Amino acid sequence: MTSFAPVSGLVGGALIGLAATILMLTIGRIAGVCGVALNAVTASDAAGRSWRLAFLLGLPLGALLVSALGLKDWSSITFPATTPMTVIAGFIVGVGSIAGSGCTSGHGICGLARFSMRSVVATVTFMATGAATVFIIRHMV
Amino acid sequence: MPVIFSLLAGVIFGAGLTLSDMVNPARVLNFLDVAGSWDPTLIFVMAGGLAVTTLGYKLILRRSSPVADDRFHLPTRRQIDLPLVGGAALFGVGWGLAGICPGPALADLVTLEPKVLLFVAAMLVGMIVTRAWRDRVYAMKALRQS
């Protein structure tokens, strides 16, 4: 069970938006985690790799920062999928995010903020198939 | 300098994912579970994120270039095509299976949970394979057209 948390959701969401805004203002880039992750590994130039690796490194550092401030209790967080299922899920997420040119952050935040029709379609689609998947797992299997 | 800026953005992004509890698979799965223990928190995360980003982008994109680069790197494609819809559909299935998407997966590395590490590794493999396959399809198309 998780209890509805609109305030921390809004505040956390606003921080995500602030991060996306900073990345656009400073280096003119979309804060889409999947594209950044792939190109951090595959970019042919060192400058292209370094800013992306710095951004990705920032994600766990930000999580640690919130923990250090005493604002996060990790003990309740579990990963319910089995290990094989987690590996399959990770692979599918990787394939889908690159085939679909974006993930929750790239389409769901940055794309929607630019009123991109592609991002609207992608966001509606992955939310629908995500909900369908959870419905099957939780209510049918 | 770009490295400092993107590190700062990454830290704030990770802090936002953590504060909003998007790092918690149960939180995400409960959002997707509309027929069961539905938790609408994710909508508020998106609302907060979109409010700031929409306004931020609107102001920033009036400039001719960003602060530390000579141009904005924005997607140019407009077409709603099969890779977009099929890819997003697949992405949603993976998201629903584990309750983890790429950003939270990386933030969740701080738990040192082996499953998170495996998720990230499998995700990177999926990404690299897909990019290689797509490059090949494009190369073959270009070859046929020439």
Textual characterization of the structure:
The complex is a heterodimer of chains A (141) and B (146). Chain A has 141 residues and is mostly helical. Chain A starts with 5 loop residues before the first helix and ends with a helix. In chain A, helix 2 packs across helix 3 and helix 5 runs antiparallel to helix 6. Helices cover 74% and strands 0% of the residues of chain A. Chain A is globular and about 45 Å long. Chain A has one domain (6-140). Chain B is mainly α. Chain B has one domain. In chain B, 69% of the residues lie in helices and 0% in strands. Chain B has helices spanning 2-19, 25-32, 41-60, 82-98, 102-107, 114-145. The mean pLDDT of chain B is 96. The interface between A and B is large, with 113 and 115 residues.
Instruction: Report on the biggest sheet of chain B.
Output: none
Reported for the largest beta sheet of chain A, the result is:
none
Q: Based on DSSP secondary structure assignment, what is the total number of beta strands of chain A?
A: 0
Low-confidence parts of chain B? none
Which pair of protein chains has the largest interface, and what are the residue counts?
A: A-B, 113 and 115 residues
At a glance:
By secondary structure, chain A is mainly α. Chain A is 74% helix and 0% strand.
